[in-house]
Structures are given as structure tokens and as C-alpha cells.
Specification:
The chain is α+β, with helices and mostly antiparallel strands. Helices cover about 30% and strands about 15% of the residues.
Length: about 70
């Protein structure tokens, strides 16, 4: 989906504690979106600063259930 300028860029606050998952999502989105501005929050402190700065206005959760190493679902 094309945007006219960087001022029209998709802005995303990517929140995940796993840096590999953040990289995966960033790459997948960059393939689909022409103009993308990504800020990352990998811990609670970074997320709190982003919220205080007004970066987290709308959110979408993609929490996925997965099996932990003990066999329980989280």
C-alpha cells in the first residue's frame, strides 16, 4: 500500500520482548509497506517511555498461545 511521503508513513510501535520476533515482524511489514516507520519496545521501561511520548495511540494485540518448555500453554 503506497503512501505519498514519509509524513504519510505507517507508524508502528512494535512491542515484543523477543528481538528475533521483532526483526521478523519488521522485515515482513517492510516487504508489504512502502513507507514504514518502526519504533521498538522490548521491555516495560521502553514501552512506558513510548507511551509517555505519545507513540502508543492505538494498539493491536497478536498474542499467540505457545507451548512452554514445561509443556504448559502460556
Amino acid at each position: 500500500m503506497a503512501r505519498e511521503s514519509m509524513s504519510d508513513a505507517w507508524r508502528l510501535l512494535l512491542i515484543d520482548d523477543n528481538p528475533d520476533d521483532r526483526l521478523f515482524v519488521r522485515r515482513a511489514l517492510a516487504r508489504e509497506l512502502d513507507a514504514l516507520e518502526v519504533q521498538e519496545a522490548g521491555d516495560a521501561q521502553t514501552l512506558a517511555r513510548a507511551i509517555e511520548a505519545g507513540l502508543a495511540m492505538r494498539y493491536s494485540s497478536t498474542r499467540m498461545t505457545r507451548r512452554s518448555s514445561w509443556g504448559r500453554y502460556t
